[in-house]
Amino acid sequence: MQTFFIIAILALGFLVTFQIAKASEYVAVLRGEEKSRKQTNKINAFMLLIFLIAGLIGVYYCNERLQGKILGRAASDHGVHIDMMLYITIALTGVVFVITQVALFWFSFKYQESDTRKAFYYPHNNRLELIWTVIPAIALTILVGFGIFYWFKITGDAPKNAMVVEVTGSQFKWEFRYPGKDKVLGKKYFKEISPEKNNPLGQLWEDPANYDDIYVSGEAMHLVVNKPVRLVIGAKDVIHDVGLTHFRMKMDAVPGTPTTMWFTPTITTKQMREETENPNFVYEISCDQMCGKGHYTMRGEIVVESQEEYDTWLATKKPQYYAVFPDKDPAMKKPAADSTKPATSAVAMAGSH
Ligand SMILES: [Cu+2]
Question: Measured in angstroms, how far is the CA atom of residue 175 from the centroid of ligand 1?
Fold first, then answer.
């Protein structure tokens, strides 16, 4: 039934178009071909002017309407520069857009066919060609130049006092690793990855740098406000992408090839909640690379807090090394060494591993 209606509508549409075309042909014959063409021309010129005005009003309206729906204030030092680049680009291209569109449609209207005027033959002008090639080339070179400058800054060496967090993407979650007191991430090897053996990242336990590395999964990444952070990014299966829209950062997570970027968060989660008047505000990590059917679920969170809050949080975490070798955990050792006291729950736990 539906198919029948669609065919019927198409057939009717064709018939109507055909009849209109035929009718206008008869009108042209009655009025005279030349006169009819000139009249159509006039209508078209007027419509172009209407299109220009309606179009410009539409652009302005969309801008006003959607103004509050953009990302809000950039929450990192690089983010401020990236927003600035965006505004400069939009301002520059915006001015060019308005000038060219007004010229295009206004000229079409003003210089429409007229019996009192003859078209001026003007095929070529080298100076004009040079001007409209060189000026955009210079403008674009400056814009791209700034982009490259910030790109090298973001992906280049982080400041000496930067903290390090390793981010690993997999279908479909994010895992984090903090280097611990030695500030060095221990070596890892993909063949050692084994969640059953408490080694979800494939850390090599013979590397002492791994002893104090803290593994965090299923909760937010914690960062310190106004302290640069270098992210070491990787993936276990396919290409993911660490997208940090609030910080205006993003970087691919590629299996086997660590990528890095650094930035300084400048606003704490608490401050952002007050500023946005949204008590549930959280900084988000989105996967910005289509990575499979659960891609949309790859949402991570980031908490930006003071150094004290961060230290308190980190103190609640234990190195992954102790999960694999509970007997090396000083917290487990102490009660075991104390033979005068009855077995504590810690000993019982150590035994159960
Ligand atoms: Cu992903």
Answer: 12
